[in-house]
Each structure stands twice: as C-alpha cells, then as structure tokens.
Specification:
With 203 residues, the chain is mainly β. It contains 3 helices and 11 strands. The longest helix is centred in the middle third of the chain and has 8 residues.
C-alpha cells in the first residue's frame, strides 16, 4: 500500500512559479473504476502571472477569460485539462487566488502504481521513460482526459499527495520549452525538473 497525505486547499494558493518546484517529488493520483494511477511528478512548468513585471504571454490566460481557460481563473486547487493538436491532453494544477489565471503544467511523471494499466493505455510491454516522459504521454498513461477538467483537487478522483517517504533530489531550473510563440515568456525560468531523473521529457 502506497502511503501519502493529500494536499490541502491552502497549498495551492501561492503563485504558480512558487508551487511548480514544490510539486516535484509529489504524487499525481487519478482514481478510476479500474485502478488507482500514481505518478511521481518529476517535471513541471509554471504559467500565468508575471516575471520581473512582464506578463506571461506564454500562458493560456494571457488574453483573458474564455470558455477554455475558465478553470485557470478559479481559486487554486482545481484541475485544468486541455487538448492539443486535437489528440493529446495536458493536465495542469490551478494555483493562486481566484481570478489570477495561474496554473502549473505537469510535464512528466515516474510511474509508481497502476503501472500495468499505464502500459496497456500506452500499448507498451515494459516500463521505460517513454511511458510518461511528456505531458501528453502521462495523460494517456494515467487515463486523464477532458472528463477530468475543472475537478476539485481535494476530492477523491484526481489530486496531489505528499509521499510518506520523500527521497532527496536536486532541482534544475530552466526556461520553459515549446513556447517559441511567447515573445517575453519564453525567457521566464519557470521550468523545473528533478536532476538526473530518466523520466524528465527533455534535458
């Protein structure tokens, strides 16, 4: 039995750039009728807010409230799941106060539980980094879809939890990736990952 403590609502209330590194090493948990998926978060990116007085033009919330981005403007502690390229889902953790438009993208996880189902979902026969070393890959592995959008992360379906035992690790901080469209935001040092972890998407 994997032991953990579920995050409280208060832990999501800080800025995305503060919460993003705190999520490293924590569990992303998705409970379904078939299994309980658990992935150790090894890579994150913060979105929204500002850096050195520059608004984040890399965030979905940059252009304001829309039907798609509405979850980002909720008070921290809900999920924001969206579809890219018409086929890949990405899961985000909404942070900060209501109306701030901030969230943390979970970019990669290391499988902990529900691994057999993860492999089935990814059509893979053995556990290796490719099962969950990217935002779209981890969502497919953990069966996270638009059905999990705007869920209360203090509920029983999708949530963040603190492992009972947390190994020590070093954190690497870099600029975010794959957002060349963001004139200013692509320079923000808001990507964080666990050093030397094989499940990190890109080094």
């Amino acid at each position: 039995m994997t032991a953990y403590t579920i995050w409280t609502k208060e832990e999501y209330q800080e800025r995305a750039s503060v919460v993003a590194p705190k999520l490293l090493g924590q569990y992303l948990i998705h409970r379904t009728a078939e299994t309980t998926y658990i992935g150790r978060i090894v890579e994150t990116e913060a979105y929204g807010g500002s850096y050195r007085r520059m608004a984040d033009d890399g965030a979905h919330s940059f252009r304001g409230l829309t039907k798609r981005t509405e979850p980002m403007f909720c008070a921290g502690g809900v999920s924001y799941v969206y579809l890219i390229y018409g086929m890949y889902h990405c899961v985000n953790i909404v942070t900060g106060p209501e109306g701030s438009g901030q969230a943390v993208l979970i970019r990669a996880v290391e499988p902990v539980a529900g691994i057999e189902h993860m492999l089935e979902n990814r059509r893979m026969e053995a556990v290796k980094p490719a099962v969950s070393n990217g935002p779209g890959k981890l969502c497919r592995a953990m069966d996270i879809t638009l059905a999990q959008n705007r869920l209360d992360l203090c509920g029983s379906e999708l949530y963040i939890a603190r492992p009972a035992e947390q190994p020590r690790f070093a954190v690497v901080r870099t600029t975010r990736i794959n957002i060349d469209y963001a004139v200013k935001g692509k320079q923000f040092p808001w990507r964080f990952y666990i050093k030397d972890n094989p499940y990190v998407s890109m080094r």
